[in-house]
Design goal:
Elements: E1 10-15, E2 19-25, E3 32-36, H1 42-50, E4 54-60, H2 65-68, H3 71-76, E5 84-87, E6 97-99, E7 104-107, E8 112-118, E9 127-131, E10 134-138, E11 141-142, E12 145-146, H4 154-165, E13 172-175, H5 180-190, H6 195-209, E14 217-218, H7 219-225, H8 234-244, H9 251-263
Parallel strand pairs: 3-4, 4-5, 5-6, 10-13
Antiparallel strand pairs: 1-2, 2-3, 7-8, 8-9, 9-10, 11-12, 13-14
The structure holds zinc ion.
Length: about 270
């Protein structure tokens, strides 16, 4: 895969309790922005007004309401056509282009180019957008965690996560929720001798004490601290085996055990 490495200017807009809607400044068209997963319209419209920016395109990773719920209202507030690039799913009625794996989203007038990765697991049609050294991965990969399996299987999700973990280490990870602190409590319950995760927890606690976002993370950091990307690690596997009380044949079985452990974990 090739990628455009020019750095993007990305800012979060908070929505609901812990969602992030990401606003990307168009490098080639100052004052125009692309919005990722606008679950709510009002905070996006307020940020556009505050920053005197106009909406140029919408990217949607998956169909859940907290990621697409604001699209109709955002489109209704525009006087020009705004394209909507979305996961290929009829549950996203506003899509103007439906995307699967390894497709390109080229917006030359904005100076933006992304490739898609189909990453089933949280939902079956979930996609991620990758470009300019940034990854917009919705509810597939979180910092120190991953999304719940609402529609996909453990093998689908672990394959999706393996693909994301193979992206360049410097790739900045823009996930859909601020779950990092709770995820790290689980991660350290699994992988308690992980010094990188321990150091990251201190950093995250300082950020959250100041109400600052912990995102973006990077793929390199996630590969060190995220147990769901470390199912091949002996300490992670041993913890999963101890928790499950049975042998786990392969990395997918380790992943499945971790995911069900996390589902019942009181953070
Ligand atoms: Zn979701």
């Amino acid at each position: 895969m090739t990628n455009n490495e020019s750095l993007l200017n990305v800012r979060p807009v908070r929505a609901f309790t812990d969602n992030y809607i990401w606003l990307i400044d168009a490098p080639a068209s100052p004052g125009r922005v692309v919005v990722v997963d606008p679950g709510e319209a009002a905070p996006v419209l307020a940020e556009l007004k505050r920053s005197c920016a106009s909406l140029a395109a919408i990217l949607l990773t998956h169909h859940h309401a907290d990621h697409i719920g604001g699209v109709a209202e955002l489109l209704a507030a525009q006087t020009v056509h705004v394209p909507v690039f979305a996961a290929d799913d009829t549950r996203i009625p506003q899509a103007t282009r439906r995307l699967r794996d390894a497709e390109r989203v080229d917006l030359p007038e904005l100076g933006l180019h992304f490739e898609t990765l189909h990453v089933p697991g949280h939902t079956l049609s979930h996609i991620a957008f990758w470009g300019h050294g940034a990854l917009f991965c919705g509810d597939t990969l979180f910092s120190a965690g991953c999304g719940r399996l609402f529609e996909g299987t453990p093998i689908q999700m672990s394959t999706s996560l393996r693909r994301l973990s193979a992206l360049p280490a410097a790739t900045r990870v823009y996930a859909g929720h601020e779950y990092t602190a709770a995820n790290l409590r689980f991660a350290l319950g699994v992988d308690r001798d992980n010094a990188a995760a321990r150091a990251y927890q201190e950093h995250v606690q300082a950020l959250r004490a100041g109400d600052a976002p912990t995102l973006p993370s990077t793929i390199g950091l996630e590969n060190r601290v995220n147990p769901f990307l470390r199912c091949d690690d002996a300490a992670v596997r041993d913890a999963a085996v101890r928790h499950g009380g049975r042998a786990l044949a392969d990395e997918v079985a380790v992943f499945a055990e971790l995911r069900s452990w996390k589902d019942g974990f009181a953070a």
